[in-house]
Amino acid sequence: MNFQAKVQAAQGVVTFRLSGELDSRSAPRFHEMITQAVVPAARRLVLQMADLSYMSSAGLRCLVYAHQRAGSGVAIELVGTRPEVAETIRLTGFDRSLTMRDAGAEP
């Protein structure tokens, strides 16, 4: 499945809706989207991941880059992450640097 990403920014919250497979072919495009969308005024970065079926190490590097680009004062939330993608994040320990929650859970 091809990777797709949509970004929306409003009132200090930058939201990405990700779908498909985030791998070495699609990671450069997502990296560029992060570069353009994450601005100093952002207070929160939300990644809607329910439709993301796969994430490679290249995709994980994009999340690390988003974390670095956003800075320490910006909360990062991964919403609705599928178990197989969440496992990749947990195995690296990166889940301790952000919040992972179910799609139906309140922020």
UniProtKB/TrEMBL annotation:
Database matches in Gene3D superfamilies: STAS domain
Protein name: Anti-sigma factor antagonist
Chain coiled-coil ranges: none
InterPro entries: Anti-sigma_ant, STAS_dom, STAS_dom_sf
Location of the STAS domain: 3-107
A Pfam family assignment: STAS
Family: Belongs to the anti-sigma-factor antagonist family.
Top-level division of the source organism's lineage: Bacteria
Single GO molecular function: anti-sigma factor antagonist activity
